[in-house]
Each structure stands twice: as structure tokens, then as C-alpha cells.
């Protein structure tokens, strides 16, 4: 009774090792643009009443997923969380499938059985999150352990927010990975808030990277808004972990520049904090960077944006036209057949 | 007199406000319940009115929240904690089952704490924001479980829950939060726990239910009656543990046909306990087998088309009633 | 041929050994299960035989253990994890309910993992080392629940559980671990999940039960028969989810009187589901109301005098049977 | 229906502040002796088949509970764990009640409803543990918060083993206490093993005190076998926490010198490790210390041991003669009456 997985295409970034090392900023920019434009469209669909439930976007945090997704190889495993659409896109999820998913279409990766940020593709090594914060962290840890037994040099990427670091599951998973030397990069996206709760109410350490020493592992604090720099850092880290497997805490400083969900006006966020991060908008930084690095001209950037917008428009239109799941299938596939 | 009808979530807010005002030992905490007023705005304005010492935000750590509440409750406070969604309470049920639920039996010391938990489907929350977990809570010795269906009941039962000396799980149906409204009097009394309520009289069958399904059952019963197929009693249990077994048995005696409805999973759902009670103690009163109408044993699906098929509703209750009346 | 009878715990050890030998994808982990062989010695000798890569100790972190098992199961391994006591599984049930139990429904990817969990009372373990939690597990969509009563069944069902593509909770009664013995053949086949077993024939009543209570029921049935009060069938359910409803209904049809026995708590216990099933689908076959004989809704007490009163036993089952036969 | 608590007598050590500061080593020695002798007797009763379930003793770790129990004041709250009989005794639990409890007598503090290490007396501020490791830590944290609101200068003592530091509950509780500045001393008794599992399989940090920085709190590593020194350290710490409330991790190095329970031959423990700690047996150290400090003569120590032994013997005899609970009371008191 197991339903067919969408045929998995390896993410562009994963196709060759050497291509990766030289990955141009334009690939990261493209991933970030697709993310931003897709999310913008999803918010619109939500406000139009065409998406049920809710919409949770990553505006301001696109660089982290883009950089870390690109830094992984074909055997690596990912467990993205709430604000990680750029991980999905970076690991090969078609924008079309994201629209299908959020619209609850039967054609989507979860066939309409889940929605919102809860998607993924196990055939591509991307685990669909469950909502319970922290709960995915041991899953990706165990998955990496399994792959390595099978002789595949997998590294794991497990994402979580500042708020999720307070859960027991976070602690259990990091300690477990440390004890077994499992190469998992715990990517903590410190976006300054957990819903309405500021980080001062979430933890008392100076930087969450300080937690690493308590697990006997390395903790790195990085700028989460500079995609190219982050990519380089993580790319190097992945090589190190393949050579000497062990977990790492990678704390990326960033900012959630919108509400917790599309329903939230985030009036609790201090304006000066928002302004400080707006000045370092990861998309602006990425645009400026590709131009400064000579990878693209300003005109090419504009063209890229148009291409991405067209892709998003087309995907949205197509997904809107596709069918919802058949209620008659409601009870199918709860169990896998023997 | 209020100028508008009061929603379920506003009624809960009123209950909390009264508790905070009248009982200095009441404290509220949970995720985002302070200045923000909670994910569903049930605590709106309470921190502003009563201060941060009485109403405060916590980190995301359900076990520490439950555990701290147990500690406070054993030291003279009456903590009321909010789960952002009941689903997340499953990360910490060991605190309820083992710590809160056994404390009085082991030590003779009471644990007057209340856990408020938004639950249920109907808002396309998907598998992890729509669960109905009352069956788990009802299986825990030492724990009480309340599940109101109407704003007036919610406000008045919440006060009784908070003033009860035992751990109480107070379930709040998310769909009902803003879908059910009533005119509420300014003066009101607490409603004792453990007392069911006949919401609609009837003599040909009874629907035993609670939460959002009360409203679906009322609609279905109305339709059945309009169609001349019979009169159907709707019994809103209001408290699931302790269960008002007398009211259930009286309803069975008065109608002789029983339909049990809930939106939680079928196998081992609370409906099984109701069916067992009826089978054991009202066997001779039955003119037909008891019938359970529940969600199937399936994770709560996201897509509206699937979720509609998943949850019982007035239409499926109506059909089940016709079949039962026809037995 | 074995030289001595085999206990339940030894039978489980044999099942695990066979799995490790025949299935390279099987891995075992949990607290103290390696060189030490586990708190109850169910994994004795397995690390020594199969190495640390296949059988290993973990830190004390049930959620990470379950989570890691889920991750491994989705990547081609067949993890079998041990809870030191089922009680501690409650710290991590969100992983079973939400992650393991929903994975196949959401993604189409199977989660072939098994959780072995010593459970039940009778050894004066007190409130936190004696719980019977099958009702919680049976309420989880996507999860299977197995609960053997005999060594041969345990060995053979464990293999089926481990080879099943779904998450299976495999409950092992601690009291039975060394209190029940059988001659076991050297050659044996797995027993499919979902098939109940008539342990004793009878036509005047049936006891629906599982786990340690099977043995108590057998003693009680024997006594009833010796007293000439009637013949009592004992149906060992063996798998609770999926339940062998056909066998239950056939037993009811053959006897017309039903006693349900378990050592878990009454309210919302698995007996409620059994009673509901019988009430819904075998109402017309009943000559008497179904009766549940269970532990009361009380934390499992420590003192032997209290624990004996807490658990159903051959004496209380005997009394319940006489009353039922006399109805 | 709430059953009457045994009348609470404040522990000797708590009676006056100034008395505490000058607490002689002999008080600590007495507490440790009573612990050791009581546990020894319990093991004997277990092997005689007179105690049901199991017996779990603290041999080798008596100093930690004795020192920390003595360091607290009358408002302070304790949540002892598996190997903390000396906390109970130090906080005023009569040895008689311990025998009653372990024998499952109705006269015991839990009236036979629980046994083994699961006892306490809330009227004396000592929480009875539940088995779930880590689960008591937030409880004592919340209890201290409540007391401080009531104007009582409470400090909490929450105990756990090296193994319990791997639980999610440990993490949640410490972080919670840190965020709310709750003065709780998390006393980690690193006794080198969690049942059969050595600490190398439990964590990878150098010392568990390293975890403190990740919570933005202080972490102290102490010798858990030198009662008097530990008492001085904790006494000072308690004063500091009363003046400036905040949690602290206090990691006490020690050794479980017997099996996990009386049933366990602990053959998995390396002999050299055991020998190293045997040379630093906390009871030997405490005996030597009181003599060296001039608090007691060797003869007085011998006399103290006789007195303690007599107290243990009498308590055991009395408890053995007392009745078990009446099965008719089985279902009473599950709920508190309104
Ligand atoms: C265990 C658990 N408790 C509560 C929630 C409800 N919840 C969903 S998102 C959220 C805030 C998460 O904050 P953070 O981890 O910082 O991620 P961010 O939203 O900032 O990306 C909360 C409390 C949850 N999903 N899981
Ligand atoms: C959550 C949980 N999991 C498992 C157990 C079973 N268990 C009881 S004691 C123990 C070892 C505890 O080791 P540690 O914390 O170091 O304390 P110690 O026994 O060494 O004092 C284990 C695994 C438990 N009590 N709670
Ligand atoms: Mg955040
Ligand atoms: Mg230890």
C-alpha cells in the first residue's frame, strides 16, 4: 500500500563535489529569490482565503537554508523546520510541489494529508517535520547513523529556532549525537523571537553556541544573513565532519522579519531591532554580493528575479488548478502493508 | 449587560480574569500567554491587568511547565498553565500521569493545578495541531478532565476546575473558540465538575457527546425531529472524569437507544468507555446496540476535503441516528 | 532440544538472537542492554555475540532513543529498542504518536521499528515501575500493539513484530518474565500479528484477556469447571492492535457471556474497547451484560498487601465468573 | 480525605543560622553513619526476603546528601533522588520512618503506597521522588518560585545522577530556572555509572559543570566525598543564592561503591576505579576529619557508631512489628476532596 514517491532528482548543488566548492553566489541568490517569491505568493493566497490553516514564512532568514542546503552532498540528510523553505528548494523541491502542498493538493508531496511547513521528500533525504519542536533532531541523528552503517558518508543538517532550544528533545538529541559521534550540524536559527517571546525569556547564556561545550562538541556562531560567507563556512565544516564525524552546533544570528504566521502583525517586535536587521536583509546582501563578486550584473540579477517570478507564477497557477485529495482515500495507508 | 454575545474564548478569558481577581494564589503561565495574550487570545489583557508576576511567558518546555506547576500547586499556589496546542502536551504527559496524578495518593498533599489545552480539528491544523487527546487524559488516575461545549459552561467550569484541589485538564475546542456565542449574564456561579447537562430533550434516542460534537448533534437531532423520525436527547457530558454516570444511565433509561459521538480516534477513544459503561450497567435498557460515531484511526489530515470526511458532523450524526432509530 | 523449559524472558532473548542472526538490518539499543544484558536480562549475551555495532547502550533519553529509531527505520534498518520499564516511555510518547505513527500516512515511507517494553505489576515495583500502558498505545493511529502471554508466542510474535513494516509496541509482562515456562521446539515459525488464540475451550462464558491475566484466567476457569459451574473459554488476544475482532465475536457467539480482564486501569482501559466492540457488534448474542474486571483507577501501590488487592487474580476472576454464569 | 502528615520537626541543622555556620563535622558524620547503617540493614532485609521490590543504596555517596542537607535553612526545599538517604536523614526523616517505608508499613511516610527510594515529607520541604529521571527538577523549581512569592527566602536543592543529565527534563528544568532566576542548586552526583553504563557513554564534555555556561549560570565541580569541605562550599553558595537568586550546577564527583540495586553484583565496574574511590571512602574521610579537627576523639567516634547502630536496630525492630496497609483502603485518597 506504500504510495509512490515523486521521482527524486538530486539537488543541483549536490551533483558534483567540485561544482559545489565553486558554487556561485547566484545559485544561492536564486534559491533565496524563489523562496521569497513563493512565500510572498503563499501569504497572498492565505489572505485571499485560498489556503487553509495558516502560512508561516521565513522572510529575513532565507540565507541560512540556501547556504546550508547547498553545502551538503548527495548522501546528506536534512530535517528543515518552520522557516526553511530555502532548504527544501535548495535540496531540489520544485516550487510547484510547494504550492501543491500548501494548497492541500493530492498531487503534492504529502498528498494533502499534511500542509503548511510540514513537507519533505525522504527519497531526497529531506525529512518532513512534525510540529513538536525538537522532535526531528533525534530522527535525523538516527537516520545519519543508519546511512553511515551502510557505508554512505552522510552528514545531517537539523534545523531549529532559538525557542526550540528550550525543549528536552533538543538536549537529548545533541547529547545522543555527541556520545555516538554522529556528524549532524544542528543549525540553530536565532531569529530573536519564538512567536511573541524574545530570546531574553528563552535562555540566559550569552550565545547559544555556548551550549556546545556542555556536550563536548564544537559551537560556532555565524552571521545568518550573509549567504555566501555562511556557505563557505558550512562547506568547510561538512568536509571536516566527513573526515572526523561528530556533531556541531551552528548558531546563525538572524531575524524573523514578519509575523510568526501570516495572521500575526508582530507588533511585539521592537522597531529598532527590525530596522537593524532590515539594513542587513539577506536578499539585499546576496544581490549586492553577486554583483560585487562579478558573478552577475545588476541587469542579470533583475532578469533572474523575473525568471523566478515567472516560475512561481506558473507553479501557483498550475497547483491551483489541480485536484484536492479524494475523501474516499481518507483511511488508506495508515499502516504500511507487510 | 454585555453589548454583544460572548464567544467561548472570551468566556474563558472572563473566567480567568475572575480567578485572578478573586484568588491571589492563582498564577497563569505558558508560551506567549503574557502581553501577547496567547496563540488564541484566551489570556488577552490579563498580564496588563494583573502584572507579570501573575501572568507570564515561559520558554518552550512543556515538561518544565507542568513540573513547575506541580511544585507551585504543592506550595499554596493555584497554577493554571496553557498548552499552546494540546498536541504538545504529549511531550510531557509523564508529569501529569506520574507526578501530578499520583501525588495525593502517595503523600496526601493536593495538587490544585489546571492545564488549559486547545484541542480538536475543524480549522485545517493538520496532524499536529488538531488532536483530540481526552482518551489519554481520562485514563490517568488522579486527574480530572473537563470539556465544555458552551461559553457559559466554559467560564463557570473553568472556575471550578481551578478551585478543585486536583489536577484538572481543561480542554478547549479550537473550532468552538469563535464559532459558538451566547449572551452571558454579568453575575454567575461556578458549575460543579462531574455534572452532565441535557441540552435537548428527547425520548427515542440519546446522543452522548461533548465538545464541538454537541453542536453537531444538536443540529442533527433537530433535523431528525423535523423529519418526524423521532425525538433525540443530546447529553453534553461537560466533565469526562469524573463522569456523570447517573446522567448517562438516566438518559439511556429514558431513550433505550444510544449514539456516542466524539471527534477523537475510535480505538480506545473515550467513546469506548461510554459504550462499556452502557453495556455493563444499562444492557437491559437497550433496544438496539450502542453505536459509536467517531473519527477513524487516522492522523488528522490537513486538506479540508479530508478533514471534513474525518470529523463526524451533523450530516453523519443524522445518518447514524436514522439508522439507530430504525433498528 | 532444550534441556529445560524456557522462560518468557529467555524466549524473547531467542527471538532477538534469531533476528540478529537472520537480519543484518536489525539493531538493538537502549539503556544497559549491551554487555549488561538489560535490566531483565532479555538481551543477555547478544552484544557479546553480535558486537557493539548491532547491540549497544545509549544514554538515558527515551525521546532520542525513539527518534533515532525512527530515523534508522526510515533508512533501511530495523531498530528494536528496549524501554527499561514501559513507565518511562511516557516521557517520549509524542515520538510514537506523532512521528512514528503518522509517517507512513504522511509520506508513504514505512517505519519498521519495535519498542520492547517490560510492563505490569506483581513484583512490588510501586507506582512507577508497574504500569500497564497498553490503552495509551492502542489509541495511537499507525501503531501496532502486541502483548504475548506465553514464551512460544513471545518468541514468535517478536519476530513478526520486528519484521512488520510498522511501529510495533511489544509489551512484555515483567511478572511473567520468569513465572511462566514452556518446552520450546528448536524449529519454529513466526506467528502473524493480529491473531488471537483460544487457550482453553469452553461454552458457558469467555474471558477476553491478555498478558499475565491469561494465566490467572486459566486458573480461574479450571476451578470453575472443577466446581461444575460451567466451562469457560479463555481467549488470549496476543495482539491488541490490530485486534482479532473475528475471534472475539466468534468467542462471544460460542459462549454468550463475556468477562473482560486486564491489569491496567479501568477507565479508558483496553477493556473498554473490548466491551464497546462486543456491545456494538455482538449485542444480540449476549445473555448477560459484559463485565470488566480490571485494576481500579489508582496508582499502582507498592505494599504487597495493596498490590494484591489492586491486581485482578485467579480468585477475583473466579468470583466474577461465578456471578456472570449465575446471571 | 487528605491524610494527615506526620508532624514536621525542622531538621536539627536548620534550627538556627549561626549554629549552622559552625556545624561540626560530627553532625555530618552522624548523618552519614545512620545512612550507611540503615542501608546495610535494608540490604540484609532484602536478601532475607523481607523487603519486596528492591533496595537501592548510596554506599560511597553519603557525604553529598549529608553536606547539602545540613547547608540548607528551614525554608529550603529538597528533591532527593535514588542515592540520597542522607538528604532525608539530614532533613529530619527519622530512621524509623525509613524502615517503615521500605517495609511497606502503613505507619510509613507513604503509608505503604510507595516504597524503596520513593519517600519524602512535604511538610518538611522534602519532595518524594517519582522514578522518571529528571522529572522532579522542575517540580522543586516551581516550588521554590512559589515560596519566594510568599516572601520566604527559599533555596532549592535538586539532586540527580550523571545518567539523569541526559534526560530532556534536566535541560528544561535548568533552563527554566535560569530564565526565571530561581535559586536552585542542581546537585549532580557523578558516581561514574548509570546502572551499568559508564559516564563515557553518557556524555562527552570534560566535566558536567561545563553545561552551566550553556545556561548562563555558574557551574561548580566539587569533591563529593569530603563532607566537611562540601558543606562549607554549599553553605557559602546558599548565602550567595539568597542574596542574589539564580540556579547553580554543582557537580560532585563520587562513586557508587555497590551495585545499582541490592540485586546487582556490579561486576561491570573496573576494579581500579573502585579501589581509587575506596581509598577515599567518604565515611573514612569523615571519621578522620572529625578526629583531625579535634571535634571528636576516636573513642567518641566509636561510641557514636554504637549509638547509631542501636538507633537503627531499634527502628528496624519496631518497623518490622508494625502493620501493613489495609487492602480495604486501596482506593482511598486518589483525589483530594474539594
Ligand atoms: C513542543 C512544542 N511546544 C510548543 C509549540 C508551539 N510553537 C510552534 S512554533 C513556536 C515558536 C517557535 O520559536 P522558534 O523555535 O524560535 O522558531 P521560529 O518560529 O522563531 O522560527 C511555538 C511555541 C510547538 N510547536 N512544539
Ligand atoms: C526517564 C527514565 N529512564 C530510565 C529510567 C531507569 N533507570 C533508573 S535508575 C537508572 C540509572 C540512573 O543513573 P544515574 O542518573 O547516574 O543515577 P545513579 O543510579 O548512578 O545514582 C535508570 C536508567 C528511569 N528511572 N527514568
Ligand atoms: Mg525563533
Ligand atoms: Mg550515576
Number of strands of chain B: 14
**What are the segments of chain A in which pLDDT stays under 50 over at least 5 consecutive residues?**
1-21
CATH architecture of chain A: 3-Layer(aba) Sandwich
pLDDT below 50 for ≥5 consecutive residues: which ranges of chain B?
Answer: none
Described by the principal axes of the CA atoms, the overall outline of chain B is: globular
| First-to-last CA distance of chain A | 9 Å
What portion of the residues of chain A fall into strands of 2 or more residues?
Answer: 5-15%
The CATH homologous superfamily of the largest domain in chain B is named Thiamin diphosphate (ThDP)-binding fold, Pyr/PP domains
Under CATH, the topology of the largest domain in chain B is which?
Answer: Rossmann fold
Estimated helix fraction of chain A: 40-55%
Tags for this model:
heterotetramer, A: 338 residues, alpha/beta, Rossmann fold, two-stranded antiparallel ribbon, 11 helices, 41% helix, B: 327 residues, 2 domains, 7-stranded mixed sheet, 5-stranded mixed sheet, binds thiamine diphosphate, binds magnesium ion
Summarize the structure in short.
The complex is a heterotetramer, with 2 copies of chain A (338 residues) and 2 copies of chain B (327 residues). By secondary structure, chain A is an alpha/beta fold.
Write a structural description.
The complex is a heterotetramer, with 2 copies of chain A (338 residues) and 2 copies of chain B (327 residues). Chain A is of the alpha/beta class. Chain A has one domain (11-325): 3-Layer(aba) Sandwich (Rossmann fold). Helix content of chain A is 41%, strand content 9%. Chain A contains 11 helices and 7 strands. Chain A has helices at 17-21, 25-47, 62-71, 85-90, 95-102, 136-149, 168-179, 227-243, 271-278, 282-292, 298-321, and strands at 77-79, 156-161, 184-190, 193-194, 197-198, 218-223, 248-253. Chain A has a 5-stranded parallel beta sheet with strand order 1-2-3-7-6, with helices on both faces. In chain A, helix 2 (25-47) packs across helix 11 (298-321), helix 3 (62-71) packs parallel to helix 8 (227-243) and helix 6 runs parallel beside helix 7 (168-179). Chain A is globular. Chain B has 327 residues and is an alpha/beta fold. Chain B has 2 domains: 3-185, 3-Layer(aba) Sandwich (Rossmann fold), CATH 3.40.50.970; 197-325, Rossmann fold, CATH 3.40.50.920. Chain B contains 12 helices and 14 strands. Chain B has helices at residues 8-22, 46-50, 62-73, 93-107, 134-138, 151-163, 174-179, 212-226, 245-255, 270-281, 304-310, 314-325; strands at 6-7, 26-30, 55-57, 78-82, 114-119, 144-146, 168-173, 181-182, 197-200, 205-209, 232-236, 239-241, 258-265, 291-295. A 7-stranded mixed beta sheet of chain B has the order 3-2-4-5-7-6-12, with helices on both faces. In chain B, strand 10 (205-209), helix 8 (212-226) and strand 11 (232-236) form a beta-alpha-beta unit. In chain B, helix 1 packs parallel to helix 6 (151-163), helix 3 (62-73) packs parallel to helix 4 (93-107) and helix 8 packs across helix 12. The longest helix of chain B is centred in the first third of the chain and has 15 residues, at 8-22. The radius of gyration of chain B is 19 Å and the shape is globular. The N and C termini of chain B lie far apart (48 Å). The model of chain B has no long low-confidence stretch (mean pLDDT 97). Classes of the chains: A alpha/beta (338), B alpha/beta (327). Chains in contact: A-B, A-C, A-D, B-C, B-D, C-D. At the A-C interface, helix 6 and helix 7 of A face helix 3 and helix 4 of C. Bound molecules: thiamine diphosphate (TPP) (2 copies) and magnesium ion (2 copies).
Amino acid at each position: 500500500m506504500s504510495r509512490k514517491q515523486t521521482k527524486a532528482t538530486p539537488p543541483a548543488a549536490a551533483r558534483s563535489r567540485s561544482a559545489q566548492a565553486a558554487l556561485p553566489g547566484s545559485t544561492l541568490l536564486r534559491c533565496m529569490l524563489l523562496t521569497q517569491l513563493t512565500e510572498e505568493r503563499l501569504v497572498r493566497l492565505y489572505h485571499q482565503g485560498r489556503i487553509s490553516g495558516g502560512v508561516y514564512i521565513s522572510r529575513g532568514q532565507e540565507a541560512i537554508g540556501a547556504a546550508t542546503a547547498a553545502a551538503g552532498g548527495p548522501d546528506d540528510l536534512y530535517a528543515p523546520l518552520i522557516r526553511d523553505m530555502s532548504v527544501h528548494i535548495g535540496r531540489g523541491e520544485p516550487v510547484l510541489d510547494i504550492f501543491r502542498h500548501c494548497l492541500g493538493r493530492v498531487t503534492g508531496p504529502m498528498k494533502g494529508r499534511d500542509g503548511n511547513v510540514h513537507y519533505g521528500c525522504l527519497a531526497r533525504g529531506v525529512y518532513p517535520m512534525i510540529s513538536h519542536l525538537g522532535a526531528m533532531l533525534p530522527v535525523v541523528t538516527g537516520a545519519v547513523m543508519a546511512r553511515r552503517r551502510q557505508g554512505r558518508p552522510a552528514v545531517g543538517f537539523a534545523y531549529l529556532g532559538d525557542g526550540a532550544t528550550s525543549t528536552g528533545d533538543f538536549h537529548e538529541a545533541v547529547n545522543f549525537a555527541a556520545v555516538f559521534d554522529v556528524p549532524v550540524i544542528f543549525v540553530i536559527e536565532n531569529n530573536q523571537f519564538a512567536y511573541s517571546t524574545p530570546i531574553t525569556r528563552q535562555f540566559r547564556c550569552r550565545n547559544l553556541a555556548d551550549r556546545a561545550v556542555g556536550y563536548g562538541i564544537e559551537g560556532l556562531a555565524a552571521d545568518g544573513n550573509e549567504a555566501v560567507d555562511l556557505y563557505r563556512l558550512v562547506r568547510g565544516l561538512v568536509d571536516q565532519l566527513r573526515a572526523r564525524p561528530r556533531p556541531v552546533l551552528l548558531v546563525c544570528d538572524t531575524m524573523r522579519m514578519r509575523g510568526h504566521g501570516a495572521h500575526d502583525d508582530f507588533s511585539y517586535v521592537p522597531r529598532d531591532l527590525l530596522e537593524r536587521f532590515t539594513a542587513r536583509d539577506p536578499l539585499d546582501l546576496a544581490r549586492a554580493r553577486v554583483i560585487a563578486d562579478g558573478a552577475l550584473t545588476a541587469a542579470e540579477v533583475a532578469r533572474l528575479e523575473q525568471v523566478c517570478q515567472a516560475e512561481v507564477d506558473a507553479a501557483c497557477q498550475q497547483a491551483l488548478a489541480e485536484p484536492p485529495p479524494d475523501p474516499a482515500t481518507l483511511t488508506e495507508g495508515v499502516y504500511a502493508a507487510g | 449587560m454585555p453589548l454583544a454575545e460572548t464567544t467561548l474564548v472570551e468566556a474563558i478569558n472572563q473566567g480567568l480574569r475572575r480567578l485572578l481577581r478573586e484568588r491571589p494564589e492563582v498564577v497563569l503561565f505558558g508560551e506567549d500567554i503574557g502581553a501577547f495574550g496567547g496563540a488564541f487570545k484566551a489570556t488577552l489583557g490579563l498580564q496588563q491587568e494583573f502584572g507579570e508576576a501573575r501572568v507570564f511567558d515561559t520558554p518552550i518546555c512543556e515538561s518544565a511547565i507542568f513540573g513547575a506547576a506541580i511544585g507551585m500547586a504543592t506550595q499554596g499556589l493555584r497554577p493554571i498553565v496553557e498548552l499552546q496546542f494540546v498536541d504538545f502536551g504529549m511531550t510531557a504527559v509523564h508529569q501529569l500521569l506520574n507526578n501530578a496524578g499520583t501525588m495525593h495518593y502517595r503523600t496526601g498533599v493536593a495538587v490544585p493545578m489546571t492545564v488549559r489545552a486547545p484541542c480538536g480539528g475543524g480549522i485545517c491544523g493538520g496532524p499536529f495541531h488538531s488532536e483530540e487527546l481526552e482518551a489519554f487524559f481520562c485514563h490517568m488516575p488522579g486527574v480530572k478532565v473537563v470539556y465544555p461545549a458552551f461559553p457559559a459552561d466554559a467560564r463557570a467550569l473553568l472556575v471550578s476546575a481551578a478551585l478543585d484541589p486536583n489536577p484538572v485538564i481543561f480542554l478547549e475546542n479550537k473550532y468552538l473558540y469563535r464559532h459558538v456565542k451566547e449572551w452571558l449574564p454579568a453575575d454567575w456561579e461556578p458549575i460543579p465538575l462531574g455534572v452532565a447537562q441535557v441540552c435537548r430533550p428527547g425520548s427515542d434516542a440519546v446522543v452522548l457527546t461533548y465538545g464541538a460534537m454537541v453542536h453537531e448533534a444538536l443540529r442533527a437531532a433537530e433535523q431528525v425531529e423535523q423529519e418526524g423520525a423521532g425525538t433525540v436527547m443530546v447529553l453534553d457530558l461537560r466533565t469526562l472524569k469524573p463522569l456523570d454516570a447517573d446522567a448517562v444511565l438516566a438518559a439511556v433509561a429514558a431513550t433505550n437507544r444510544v449514539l456516542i459521538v466524539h471527534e477523537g480516534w475510535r480505538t480506545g477513544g473515550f467513546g469506548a468507555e461510554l459504550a462499556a459503561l452502557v453495556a455493563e450497567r444499562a444492557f437491559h435498557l437497550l433496544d438496539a446496540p450502542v453505536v459509536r460515531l467517531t473519527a477513524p484511526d487516522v492522523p488528522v489530515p490537513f486538506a479540508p476535503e479530508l478533514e471534513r470526511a474525518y470529523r463526524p458532523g451533523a450530516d453523519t450524526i443524522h445518518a447514524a441516528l436514522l439508522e439507530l432509530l430504525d433498528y
